[in-house]
Design brief:
Layout lengths: L1 E4 L6 E4 L2 E4 L2 E4 L8 H4 L6 E7 L5 E7 L7 E7 L1 E8 L10 E7 L4 E5 L3 E7 L4 E7 L8 E3 L20 H4 L14
């Protein structure tokens, strides 16, 4: 596993190694020893799988509020997505900036998103599947989100947005009074 930094502090891209032969392929997606410096004392406590049928669909931008904030490690098992992290951390030098990377089954990598950053993605190919590792369990009362099309973020989604859930459409826009989330 090769760990690369990004312009957003704590947001990392981890390149994974896939080994292939005539039988197929093998890839280690998670290794606590190799990711120890990334996890920095955190432990993965939950994993989730998502499947999205239609290209253009956007899911997100989600996060959990303190004290249930979570680090996420995300990889694509099938298809392709444009995965986005947005820095919502109060006092961060990259506050309200975003970073995106394409995750696909052909280019195996993990996107690491720390506490205080929102996460979302757009499906680039139909039937795309993601695997998530979380350092905190999902707590519905701690859920937060910002609109995928919030003008304060100005995220240029690569495809026309075809679908967004009602829940994600209900997120309130970031206003001038928003000073960030506590981590």
């Amino acid at each position: 596993m090769r760990i690369e930094t990004t312009p957003l502090a704590g947001v990392l891209v981890v390149d994974l190694e896939r080994r292939s032969d005539s039988r197929g392929a093998f890839m280690r997606v998670f290794c606590a020893n190799e990711l120890a410096q990334v996890l920095d004392g955190r432990h993965v406590v939950q994993s989730n799988h998502s499947s999205t049928a239609k290209a253009g669909t956007v899911r997100g931008m989600h996060f959990q509020h303190h004290p249930h904030a979570e680090m996420k490690l995300i990889t694509c098992l099938h298809g392709s997505v444009w995965d986005v992290a947005v820095d919502l951390r109060s006092g961060s030098p990259t506050f309200l900036q975003w970073f995106a990377v394409e995750l696909s089954c052909e280019n195996p990598r993990l996107l690491v998103i720390p506490e205080g950053c929102a996460h979302g993605f757009q499906v680039l190919r139909p039937q795309s599947e993601l695997l998530y590792f979380h350092t905190a369990p999902y707590i519905p009362e701690a859920e937060g989100g910002v609109p995928h099309d919030d003008p304060a973020l100005d995220i240029p989604w690569p495809l026309p947005v075809s679908e967004v859930s009602q829940r994600d459409r209900a997120h309130l826009s970031i206003g001038p009074e928003f000073t960030g989330v506590i981590v």
